[in-house]
From TrEMBL:
Keyword Signal: no
Stated name of the protein: Beta-galactosidase
Organism in which the protein naturally occurs: Lachnospira pectinoschiza
Keywords assigned by UniProt, alphabetized: Glycosidase, Hydrolase
The Glycoside hydrolase family 2 immunoglobulin-like beta-sandwich domain, residue ranges: 169-256
Keyword RNA-binding appears in the UniProt entry: no
InterPro entries documented for this protein: Beta-gal/glucu_dom_sf, Galactose-bd-like_sf, GH, GH2_Domain-Containing, Glyco_hydro_2, Glyco_hydro_2_cat, Ig-like_fold, Ig-like_GH2
Residue ranges of domain Glycoside hydrolase family 2 catalytic in the record: 263-550
A Pfam family this chain is assigned to: Glyco_hydro_2_C
Biological process, per Gene Ontology: carbohydrate metabolic process
Gene Ontology MF term list: hydrolase activity, hydrolyzing O-glycosyl compounds
Family, as annotated: Belongs to the glycosyl hydrolase 2 family.
Length: 738
């Protein structure tokens, strides 16, 4: 199969919105623009969710026997026309799909008029239905032309794959590659498969005359062992006719074993492997989702620097190049579909399985992927039996396609430990935000131990945790919801230290490695940005918390003075905090050595009560050959720009933290989810007495997320004159029915 990049010189047009089934290829144009792909029609000041069209003429070569359009992603519902003939429809914004252009449309012609209609309008039958991220719209990964000059070829239309599905297995002593071949062939054609190691040496070979499956076996394979040894092999599969090569496909893969234990965590190649992970979305700065391979490479460079060993690629299928990078650089990958809200709409459930099948078949050959995620936080909206039953079907689909990997899911923290939503996967992650949206940082300790005690057979980890930080905001006494860089750093110092004490955890994923676009947000003094990243949206600023994890995870020796952007100080004395993986360091103030200090074992050195000079204080921290410097300016009054006006910093903890003796085991409380409290007649009456307006808002809105904790709902609504302790005490009288 031959490939031609087809990304230059497209005409982009916004169209009057209408259902795609009414599209005929000749719609009236309201907006025109010349664009190159990849392209998204999202703009920060204009969140367009509607219909658009991309069009371009394809010059045809008379030698072409079969012709395909290779669309790497169309966000999120697409129709493809060739000379006004509909040739393909695709539902799902993140997977690759291919369609053949019938020869009858281009035979004896010099060109074909191609049109791709794309809509990102909310559709009740296409996931995602919701999410704290932007559904950008567009052809944001580009388009290729595929063609063959022969009648025999590997079929690129089979679920967007290249026509050969590669599965590997190993017991450590031997390795096997099983090939599932989808091809168009003629009588007399044969298949040849060759396995080559990283040096290009042929280590196994297999032939087939008419079977569409082949197996290759080797002894003592070099295992893909994450960052230790990311060994890769190449599978070359050919269609031969009379020993002449008609078509050829090259796919990289690797051998490795994955296992998991509820008490000991994850295992890679029979050795314990603690996940030290970060999560990431696909978007970058003002390019949004229309990123280049260079943008993705830069993201991996930053993840390399921090020293993580795993990436959760949230919350949908990412580009092929992203998985290639993970293979090459040795990252274990959590790959998932965008099932973030599950309804009983059969078409929605079928679409999720179609997206799951595309995700797996297109990426099954990547050794970096260790688990397939089938849902994220669907419990936010409900916890019903139909959800459990459908997830079991998704689990079966995964196991039928790929028995070598784990099935996983991420649940909202309000999902009860013994919920059926925790009984559908091999492992589970919980998205937990104590110390930010609810509770206090140390609540992680009790929460995780309680889960493990109640569900000792279920491997658990933390799939999301983090806080928003605007790098323009600072505080000497950081508190929850001040959005300061200092609170984010303090949070991660305290929370990750708790995770390290739990040997039963398979690990954790920081939410998020990078700030990302979320069109629904206006928070932290920022618009349409989720600022929980350790690195800014444009990748130009590494927040202090980035260096905390670098100190914990990276082998690269370094020093980093924190709070450099918190330059103007009204205090006479300040503490100088340093993140480092070095044992000790000394501090120089205005060329005078002041003190030395040791690493506290949590990646941190603190120099206490350093007196600032009247004007400028120049700080150097030194350890052997490693040096970092900063400048602080003494001012008379606190710098107002470091704080948000009218910000309710600290109120989350003040309002919501209920002492443990007020939370009665086995009884309801404000920490219960809205759905449970409304379903119980007694607790619903209590809600009606204390928060009638909020209750009415919930019950009259079918789309309200009933899986949220009541405390989170009240925190957002901010009812006046509510005695939270008295209200909670009333709920404590009612015995829980779950």
């Amino acid at each position: 199969m031959n490939k031609i990049s087809f990304n230059e010189g497209w005409l982009f047009e916004k169209l009057e919105d209408k259902p795609l089934e009414l599209i005929d290829g000749n719609e009236i144009v309201s907006f025109k623009e010349n664009v190159n792909l990849p392209h998204t029609f999202y703009k920060k000041d204009e969140y367009y969710r509607g219909l658009a069209r991309y069009s371009k003429k394809l010059m045809v070569d008379s030698k072409w026997r079969h012709l395909f359009l290779d669309i790497l992603a169309a966000d999120q519902h697409a129709l493809v026309f060739a000379d006004d003939v509909k040739i393909m429809e695709h539902k799902g914004g993140y997977s690759r799909f291919r369609c053949e252009i019938p020869a009858s449309l281009y035979k004896d012609k010099k060109e074909v008029d191609l049109k791709i209609y794309v809509t990102n309008k909310l559709d009740s039958e296409i996931s995602p239905l919701t999410g704290d991220f932007t559904v950008f719209g567009g052809l944001n990964r580009g388009v290729n032309i595929l063609y063959t000059e022969n009648e025999s070829y590997f079929d690129p239309t089979y679920y967007g794959t290249d026509g050969v599905i590669v599965r590997t297995s190993t017991d450590g002593k031997s390795g096997q590659v099983d090939l599932e071949i989808h091809a168009k062939t003629e009588i007399g054609d044969t298949f040849l498969a060759e396995l080559k190691d990283s040096s290009g040496e042929n280590v196994a070979i297999a032939f087939s005359n008419n079977e569409t499956s082949l197996s290759l076996k080797i002894d003592n394979p070099k295992l893909w062992n994450a960052k230790g040894e990311a060994n890769l092999y190449t599978v070359e599969t050919s269609i031969l006719r009379a020993d002449k090569e008609i078509d050829k496909l090259v796919i990289r893969t690797g051998f490795r074993k994955i296992g998991i234990d509820a008490n000991k965590g994850l295992f890679l190649n029979d050795k314990a492997f603690r996940i030290k992970g970060v999560s990431k979305h696909q978007d970058v700065g003002d390019k949004y989702s229309a990123v280049s391979d260079d943008d993705i490479k830069r993201d991996f460079d930053l993840i390399d620097e921090i020293g993580a060993n795993s990436i959760r690629l949230s919350h949908y299928q990412h580009s092929s190049y992203t998985y290639d990078c993970a293979d090459e650089r040795g990252y274990l990958v959590w790959a998932e579909i965008p099932m973030l809200k599950m309804t009983d709409n059969k078409n929605l459930l079928d679409n999720a399985k179609e997206q799951l099948k595309e995700l797996i078949l297109q990426n099954i050959h990547h050794p970096s992927i260790y688990c397939w995620g089938i849902q994220n936080e669907i419990g936010m909206f409900n916890d019903k039996d139909f959800m459990y039953e459908d997830l079991l079907k998704s689990r079966k689909l995964v196991k039928d396609l790929d028995s070598s990997r784990l099935v996983t899911a991420a649940n909202l923290y309000t999902v009860k430990f013994k919920s059926k939503l925790n009984q559908t996967t091999d492992m589970i992650g919980y998205n937990v935000y104590f110390g930010w949206y609810y509770g206090k940082m140390h609540d992680y300790d009790r929460f995780l131990d309680k889960f493990h005690a109640e569900c000792p057979q279920l491997p658990i980890g933390v799939s999301e945790y983090g806080v928003d930080a605007n790098v323009s905001l600072h505080s000497s006494n950081p508190v929850v919801k001040d959005y300061s860089e200092e609170y984010q750093a303090l949070y991660h110092e305290n929370v990750y230290r708790i995770f390290e004490t739990k040997p039963y955890l398979w690990g954790s994923y920081v939410w998020n490695m990078f700030d990302f676009s979320s069109a629904i947000r206006k928070e932290a003094g920022l618009e349409k940005i989720n600022a929980k990243g350790l690195v800014s949206f444009n990748r130009d600023i590494k927040k202090d918390a980035f260096y905390y994890y670098k100190a914990k995870w990276s082998e690269e020796k370094f020093l980093h003075i924190c709070q450099k952007r918190f330059e103007k100080r009204a205090e006479e004395y300040i503490d100088i905090k340093v993140y480092t993986n070095l044992d000790s360091a000394y501090l120089i103030l205005n060329d005078k050595e002041i003190s030395s200090a040791n690493n506290n074992g949590n990646g941190t050195i603190i120099f206490e009560k350093i007196r600032l000079e009247n004007k400028e204080s120049f700080i150097k921290v030194v350890s052997g050959n490693y040096v970092d410097s900063a400048k602080f300016i003494k001012v008379e009054k606190e710098e107002k720009s470091y704080r948000l006006e009218d910000n309710e910093a600290g109120t989350s903890v003040k309002n919501w933290f209920i002492e443990d003796d007020l939370i009665k085991e086995g009884y309801y409380s404000i920490k219960d989810c809205v759905g449970d409290l409304i379903d119980n007649g007694e607790t619903k009456d209590i809600l009606n007495n204390y928060i009638p307006d909020i209750l009415n808002m919930i019950t009259t809105n079918e789309d309200f997320p009933r899986g949220l904790a009541l405390q989170s709902v009240i925190n957002r609504a901010k009812p006046k004159n509510l005695d939270i302790n008295k209200f909670n005490g009333e709920l404590n009288r009612i015995k829980a029915e779950y």
